[in-house]
């Protein structure tokens, strides 16, 4: 493993450790988040739920970039990179749905058994996650590596074009309980600026974590392909 990679990994892990300390610390007046009506201390989920979606959007962009390179260069290595990024993005999308569902239950629906109410933003986020889930179903249905790489790349680019619309544009045009939707103030308007001291580092930290997972996945897949090639040569 290259020395610079180990250094970057250490920086990202240390960064996220500081983010977690800042998110859960109750000591010090600057870390005691202001009380927000209904949300109270569940507002700390802002440091996790929202960065999940920022991270998913960033990694889907990386996946789409390599999908485009796969189509241009007809490169199976680019296909591996695109697929690995899509898998990481899908994982963060699922984490975004879970953290959102839990947050909604303990704020909007506290005292009930409701964990999902098909709020427009929830629903469209779920649709986006399903679209990327279908990407892997499509790959599993194709046997020829070259054909699978080409068709999957086209689908990947299609899926990426929907990301900003399903996760940001359309939900803001509909009535929703989420901040920033039609008739609701943005989250930045109802939270204290001190929360940004943890929120923005959290976004960068989780994107860094996604990059680590992505690079590890790519390295593993490339080594597996190299091992298969060696086995074929022996035969």
Account of the 3D structure:
With 235 residues, the chain is mainly α. The protein has one domain. Helix content is 71%, strand content 0%. The chain contains seven helices and no strands. It has helices at residues 3-24, 49-73, 76-105, 120-140, 145-169, 187-190, 196-234. Helix 3 runs parallel beside helix 5 (145-169). The longest helix is centred in the C-terminal third of the chain and has 39 residues, at 196-234. It starts with a helix and ends with a helix.
Biggest pleated-sheet summary: none
Roughly what percent helix? over 70%
User: Total domains, how many?
Assistant: 1
| Anisotropy-based shape | globular
Number of separate helices: 7
pLDDT averaged residue by residue? 86
Instruction: Tell me the Rg in angstroms.
Output: 20 Å
Q: Please mark out the parts with pLDDT under 50 across 5 or more consecutive residues, or reply none.
A: none
* H-E string: HHHHHHH
> Structural class of the secondary elements?
mainly alpha
The total strand number stands at: 0
Q: Gap between N and C termini, in Å?
A: 30 Å
- Percent in strands: under 5%
Keywords:
235 residues; mainly alpha; 7 helices
Summarize the structure.
By secondary structure, the protein is mostly helical. The chain has helices spanning about 5-25, 50-75, 75-105, 120-140, 145-170, 185-190, 195-235. It has one domain (about 5-235).
Secondary-structure blueprint:
Layout: H1 3-24, H2 49-73, H3 76-105, H4 120-140, H5 145-169, H6 187-190, H7 196-234
Helix pairs in contact: 1-7, 2-3, 2-5, 2-7, 3-4, 3-5, 3-7, 4-5
């Amino acid at each position: 493993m290259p020395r610079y990679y180990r250094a970057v990994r250490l920086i990202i892990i240390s960064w996220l450790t500081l983010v977690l300390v800042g998110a859960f610390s109750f000591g010090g007046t600057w870390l005691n988040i202001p009380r927000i009506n209904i949300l109270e201390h569940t507002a700390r989920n802002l440091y996790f739920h929202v960065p999940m979606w920022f991270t998913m959007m960033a990694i889907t962009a990386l996946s789409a970039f390599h999908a485009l390179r796969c189509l241009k260069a007809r490169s199976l290595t680019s296909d591996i990179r695109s697929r690995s990024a899509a898998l990481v993005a899908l994982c963060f999308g699922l984490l975004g749905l879970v953290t959102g569902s839990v947050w909604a239950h303990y704020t909007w629906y506290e005292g009930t058994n409701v964990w999902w109410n098909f709020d427009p933003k929830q629903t469209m986020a779920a649709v986006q996650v399903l679209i990327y889930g279908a990407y892997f179903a499509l790959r599993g249905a194709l046997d020829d590596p070259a054909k699978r790489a080409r068709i999957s790349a086209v689908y990947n680019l299609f899926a990426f074009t929907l990301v900003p619309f399903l996760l940001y544009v359309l939900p803001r045009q509909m009535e929703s309980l989420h901040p920033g939707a039609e008739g609701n103030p943005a989250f930045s308007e109802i939270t204290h600026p001190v929360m940004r001291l943890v929120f923005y580092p959290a976004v960068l930290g989780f994107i860094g974590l996604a990059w680590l997972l992505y690079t590890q996945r790519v390295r593993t897949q490339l080594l597996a392909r190299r091992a298969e090639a060696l086995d074929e040569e022996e035969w």
